[in-house]
Structure formats: C-alpha cells, structure tokens
Amino acid sequence: MAKVLVIADIKQGVLKGSTTELLSKARAMGAETAVVAIGSNIESLTADLAAAGSDTQYIADDPGLELFSAGPYASCVVDAAKQFEADMIWFGFSESGKASAPRVAAQLEAACATEIIEVEMEGDTIQVVRPAIANKVLQRIQVNTRQLVAVIRAGAFEADPDITGTENVVALAAPPADVKAVIKELVLDASGEVDLADADIVISVGRGAKDQAGVDLVKELAAELEAGFGSSRAMVDSGLMAHNKQVGQTGKIVAPTLYMAMGISGAIQHLAGMSGSKTILAVNKDPEAPIFNVADYGIVGDLFEVTPILREEIKKIRS
Amino acid sequence: MKILTTVKKVVDVELNIHLENGAIVEKGLQYVINAWDENAVEAAVQLKENNGAETTLVSVGGGDNTDMIRKCYAMGIENGIHIEDPALVDAGSSVFAKVLQKVFENGDYDLVITGKQAQDTDSGQTGIMLAEALSIPCVSNVISIEVIDDQNIKVSRLGDAGTEIVEIELPAVVTVSDSINEPRLPAMRGIMMAKKKKIQVMDLAALGTSAEEVCGSTPKSKIIEFMASQSRQAGQKFEGDAAEITAKVVDLLANEAKVL
Questions:
Q1: pLDDT value of position B176
Q2: For residue B222, which residues of chain A lie inside 8 Å, CB to CB?
Q3: Taking the CB of the first residue and of the last residue of chain B, which one, N or C, has fewer CB atoms within 10 A?
C-alpha cells in the first residue's frame, strides 16, 4: 500500500480545509495516510488532524517553529517522511509549501512537481498532471524516482465529508534553527480579513473601479458576503490594492465556489489564477472583455452602477 | 559584492499554443525573457547602482539567447554567460540547479537573484534547489532587498500570514516576485553599447562538468504528454437595464448555479 504524507496547512493556529482535501484524495487512492504538523503550541490540533483523515500524526511543536522558516520546516517534513517511509509527500497550495517542497525534494533526492491537479498511481508508477504556460496546456509527468514531493494546487481535490482517521501521535524532535536566514519580524496582514486561499466566495476588483471610492464599493460587497477580497495586477500596480491581494499567475491562485470579477478585463495572467473556480461572475463595461470568455454569468455594465444593485439583490434572495 | 542573476528564455504566454500528438507545435511560437527573471535583473542592477556591485547573468539552454542577454546588458548587467549543451534539451529544475551550482562555484558570487518561477512551467524550484545544492540560505517570493553590509542583506517576503522580514548571511539565493520592481526599458545608448559586448558561451565540459554529473542516469521525472487544458466556456452574458439584468443574474446564481 502506498504511503502518503500530507503537510498540515495551519494558519494562526487553525487547521485549514485543504488538509482534509489532500487526505481525502490519498484515502480514495487506497493509500495509508499520515500528516505532519509544524508550529508552536499546536498540541490542541491533534484530534482535528486525526479527524481530517490521517492514520498517524507527526507533530513538531516547538517555540522556535512559531514563525515560518523554510529550512527548519523542511527538516521536520524530511524527518517525518523518513520515519513514515512515505512514497509521496504532498504540500497544500501555500507560500510555505512552495518554499519548502523543493528543499525536501533535494534532501530526499526525490522528484518534485508543483501546481499538481491530479495524481494517478498504477502499481509502483506515479503520474501527475499539472497546468503549464499560464494554464494554456496541461502536462502529464511520469515520476521515475521512488518518492515524489508535490505541491497540490488549490481546489484540485474534494474533501470527503465522511472521512475519519485514527489518533496515533509521533512527536518529532525540534529541528535546528536556520542561523543564516533569520526571520526578524512577521508583519501580519490586516486581521479580521477573510483568507483568499479558502474563502467560499472571492470578489476581486480591477481597473474598472478607477479609484479608492470604487475599491471601497466592491470591498463593502465582499465584507457583506464574508468573501475574500482580491485584486487584479493593475490595481496592485496603481497602489490601490496590496500585493498580497493579487489573484493570478504571479499572485494567489484561488478556486472558490463563486468568483466575482468586478471591472477586471481578464488578462491571461489573471485567468491563470482563478479559472479553477466553480462558478464565475464577471461585471465589466466592455462587452468584448476577455473575462466574459471564462465567465458563467456576465453582466455588461459599470461596476459603480451594478455593485449596489448586486448587493441589494443578494441581500433580498438570502433573506 | 558579486551578484549572479539567472535568466530563462520562455514561450510567450500571450500567444496561442497548439498541440499535436501530445507535443507543443513549435511553429509560430515566440520566445521572450521570463518576466520574473526580468525583475531579478532589475533588482541586480538597482543593487549595483545603489550599493556598488558587479553583475553577471547566466542563461542555461534555450539555443541562441543573444537577443535576450543583450537586452539585459542594455538594462545594466555587465557580464553574460550562456550555457548550451545537447544534454540540456529536456532539462528540468534539478538539472538547472546543478548547472547553476557549477557556475556559482566558478565565480565566487555573494548573491544569486532568480525569478521566483518561470512563465513556461510555473514550477518555482530552481533557485531553491540551487541553494540546497550549495548549502547556502535561500528566501523565496521576495519583494524587497536591502544591503546591510558586505556579509548581510535584509529582505521582505510575501508569506502566508503576512510579510516576513528576514536577515540573510551571504552568500545566499533570493527568488523574487514581480512585486519587487518595475523593470526598466533600456535606453538607446545602452542598447547600442550592448551590441558590442561579448557573451561567454560554454558547454558543460567547458563549465567543468558533464552530462552525467548534472543530469544523472535517468531524469527524476519526465513530461510524457502535453494535453489541452480544460478551458472554460463562455456562459450567459446579459446587456441592458442594470437593475433588471443584475436581478436576473443573482437569481441564476442562487437557483441555477446554487452558489449563493
């Protein structure tokens, strides 16, 4: 039986849903599953980690692991992978995962593949599928090593609502700190904001919003729907939106249930970051905007006029 | 300070890609410098201008990269190395990392700046694997670089929960996000000067290594097929009275798509 080690996605002390999605896929493939959780004061997560669908929980809990540092983080994963004798090591789609996976692969001399949307196993042969060239093509990749380190794309796998696991905790030794790349400070994103990575609804704003008033209008809609609030590249470049809000090939890749593109024309780089969404609504003044080519529903109109109506209509239908 | 930047020639993602028998049709493709590498070049040139540094770029594979390297010269890079070898045709990240390791070891560099990923693969592995091979520190997804002194730099990186401020002891690798800067358009004078500059072209033997050393006996993974991506279809588009069509769409979102 294949063994899959999933890296737990923990943010601000909370286990994220992507961990269950990855474990659900591993179980559906008939694999034995383990999870590795890395952080400080995370002992309370043990039950959640088991319930997320793992048979074994490797826990690296140390004050030195409170802030992310790729070196120590990778050391913990390598330690767990060796103890578990993992065939596959899966990271969820996160900046910490993207920073750690190539290190883990290099240390294990394993193959490494990122942005994975499908994993197939036949006997000992592993194949993975991933998008490339800004989502214009898919690549099927054959793995020739015994082990594969993969970063799984957001929304690639679905969580099994009936998944269960068993509690079997293995404590990992604290890894040495990286003394040559020392994290001095973490400037937290504004608190109380909905995480783009796992929001059910993501609403992004583009050049059509013009100015701060336009941004605020869309932001209010996002707040009311408890949606993640994202941005096109143009709005980040203009300084109206923060870097960490950018959705696209160069920023965050999201796959919510509903994505609303407000005043976004739909450059290929933006589409690469949101075309995995279940349903897409686009609002744009220009009926020829490329965003309409990927949108399930399109409203040709000015977002200044449409947004308040959208807000009222959604409020009506929800009450 | 000696800075090495890496540049990759990639397929222009703005153009349509055609597939035939599981492979990309070469005809009609155009190639450009990887956008993130252009940010890396700009970052290196800014460090040279602001703090004093010697800048070298290296490109690995891709055939004739003269135009791309000249563009970087025109932006302000001083030296260019191009590694070309038949063994590098299907090279992936781990192979690139081993080639770059040799370049680094030959040059006594203090800082390597790479784009955080390449537009053609979006893998984001090479820079990090290079640092692993050299056992030197690496910080990825960097949005600012500040020189502290000859041995130390301070960078900020976009992490999962916010911006991480990291102090790094050199030598080190940083991979940069496109948020770090806006690459300059080379001035005419720079373009003219760039035409006269030499590019050092080497194969693996001249670099002091071999296909066996950098590629190993079998590649760790291999692309066996390219497939069409599951492209989305355009759905229903509504024009007309804003109040009317918005109400209609909200109704569809709730009752047809069932996502509200």
A1: 98
A2: 141-142, 144
A3: C
Give residue-wise pLDDT tens across range A36-78.
999 999 989 999 999 999 999 999 999 999 999 999 999 999 9
CA distance B69 to chain A (A): 22
If one counts every other C-beta atom within 10 angstroms of the C-beta of residue A52, the result is 28
Q: Are B193 and B74 in contact (CB under 8 A)?
A: yes
Please report residues of B whose CB lies closer than 8 A to that of A313.
246-247, 250
pLDDT tens for each residue of A235-249: 999 999 998 899 998
CB contact under 8 A, B94 and A137: no
Domains, chain A: 3-171 (3.40.50.620), 196-318 (3.40.50.1220)
C-beta separation of B220 from A146 below 8 A: no
Residues B193-231 have pLDDT tens digits of 999 999 999 999 999 999 999 998 888 999 999 999 877
Are residues B101 and B130 in contact, defined by beta-carbon separation less than 8 angstroms?
yes
Residues in chain A where the model's pLDDT stays below 50: none
Q: Locate all alpha helices (DSSP H) within chain A, ordered by sequence.
A: 17-28, 46-51, 70-84, 95-108, 212-224, 233-237, 268-274, 303-318
Q: What is the pLDDT averaged over residues B110-136?
A: 96
Q: What is the pLDDT of residue A190?
A: 75
> Cβ-count burial of A122 within 10 angstroms (0-12 exposed, 13-18 middle, 19+ buried)?
exposed
Q: Is A192 helix (H, G, I), strand (E, B) or coil?
A: coil
Q: Which of B136, B56, B180, B245 is nearest to A297 (CA)?
A: B245
Cβ contact, residue pair A112, B220, below 8 Å: yes
| Cross-chain residue pair B239–A99, CB shorter than 8 Å | no
Domain definitions of chain B by residue range: 2-215, 230-260
- Let me know if domain B2-215 sits in CATH 3.10.20.740: no
Q: What is the pLDDT of residues A295-314, one digit of tens each?
A: 999 999 999 999 999 999 99
Q: How far is B51 from chain A (nearest CA, A)?
A: 21
Judge: B218–A299 Cβ closer than 8 Å, yes or no. no
What are the chain B neighbours of A258 within 8 Å (beta carbons)? 253, 257, 259-260
* pTM listed for this prediction: 0.92
Neighbour tally for B212: CB within 10 Å: 10
Q: Give me the numbers of helices (H) and strands (E) for chain B, helices first please.
A: 8, 15
Residue contact B223–A139, C-beta within 8 A: yes
Cα A183 from Cα B166, distance rounded (Å):
4
Q: What is the ipTM of this complex?
A: 0.93
Q: Give the pLDDT confidence score for residue A255 in this predicted structure.
A: 92
Residue A35 distance to chain B (closest CA, Å): 19
Q: Which residues of B touch A106 (CB under 8 A)?
A: 94, 97, 128-129, 132-133
**A138 and A76 Cβ atoms separated by less than 8 Å:** no
Contact B92, B220 (CB under 8 A): yes
Mean pLDDT of chain A: 95
